[in-house]
């Protein structure tokens, strides 16, 4: 990008960027380690109204009447924001630390992949059912991003979705029998070999595609026949290696838990050439006075006893190809009550000790193991995710980074741990880039810097990534200081909202026949022409188990079909009630790109609310965002400029009439490329202030340009608007 085409902003009076040559990266050199692999289960899939027009598994409702805990329902409404402004997602741990996101958002996928790479995870095994099923869309999205960053993708085949259930009939009505489903299983194997394992970054171990089987699909005898078929193998790879989940039984007797040896469950699979893994320990202890939230639970000691029992299989030498150990951070299915089973089971995380002890146990058996399988990266619904969450933050990821390095004979340092927040900073910076681009704000080389940051993280060059992203963050910091927010309340009291429907004297509106919300045209026109964040607020009585539906007039086309699911951008919210009898306040986020505000909704409305019961206290709150529009004239003069071997400085005097919230920028260029940027708000400048730059390439000429923020023409050189005299640039260094 050229200066003058896109504006540039950066805050901070003095901000020195370290010279590139001085950066010391923690993992800059290639690291070989051993051949052991660390994979994480990727459970999906979750979507958003803004990105996809629906919610996926972020939303959950189940009856739990059969639970002894007294909790009658599981009810998560991610269309509602809580008091902290967070979506009410189906997660017992507060959801992702970066907030509710769509798992099809490439920025979010990038964030996950880079985090996993930093934690020495080789790849994700993504839940898969059959080619037509919706999760295949998720699998394809991950493969697209993973290829950029040399990160492996394979599948955790939820084989029951195809073989045990009849879901395939919704896509292929001719498949009506188990025999036909097993035949289609063979077709699906070939699909995976062609579409997933033919890629250069497929999950491959010792030259063989790695496929995990979650169980509930083919029996061992049926799988033997599937293995006997001939398949086209990609890229000179060997036949697939399968690893199936088994669950050795256990029992609870008089306060004690014991688990059976895995041999009887494992042997039928080993006999046909399929390895096994243990999955997560069964929860066998009944609810007690301490663990009142669970119908069944397991302790950390139970999990370790389970792992100890299963390790006998590793020591027996019975593996076909691979010994796999499973580690899990915990378990808590309050997000879904066993996917409709209606009871609650759990394993408490014990302050992270549960996860640490499993890794330590596996390191003691390191010489016997080939693969570590983390269960899981992202199962927020059953509470065994290691992705950073609101509640546990980075704790489990830090544990993974430390112990996975030891498992793979890679170096590890606390300095490496300190960089783990880089992918989150990158993700947030990408979202800010989009936000400020929408405002027409100056972002200059930010997109390129962020792409470079991602490449540096992927390559283990963390110091370089830190240096590069800092430049973009400084720009966003300055923009945030300059940003102005105007709050507009739309309500009947403000006389800019018309509510049409049946109401009583207290303005309680009946949802039975629906109610229409229409914004005054003058207000609507003002909002259509601007950038805003907004929420719809109302209160309702939670008196039954029916939904409250909110739709809006929208001009967006429907998103692509995901399996059998068709998203709809006109849907604002589907709020499930659970008959609590309480009056509840609803705060529903509104997404500007989804909402037309042209009165093109049902019955000429902008918003339509229907369902059962009464609502009241209806209002919309818009936060209109903008950047200052005044012109700067005769605000700054450069009074001196100088350079030495490492630094160039410009002394600046600010005029008495300079606006108080504008920014002066200095841009140090090397062969037309920005290598350092500085700025300061006029309110921060004293009578004479200094902008100081380090030369980043010693012995080479560089150019210093000064710019001022001009909203009408973008970022312009100060001399071109008579703000700074050209005669100020009097050294060979400054041009």
Automatic annotation (TrEMBL):
Q: Which residues does UniProt assign to the signal peptide?
A: 1-21
Q: Which Pfam families match?
A: Glyco_tran_WbsX
Q: Extract the InterPro entries matched here.
A: WbsX
Keywords from the UniProt entry = Signal
Q: What is this protein called?
A: Uncharacterized protein
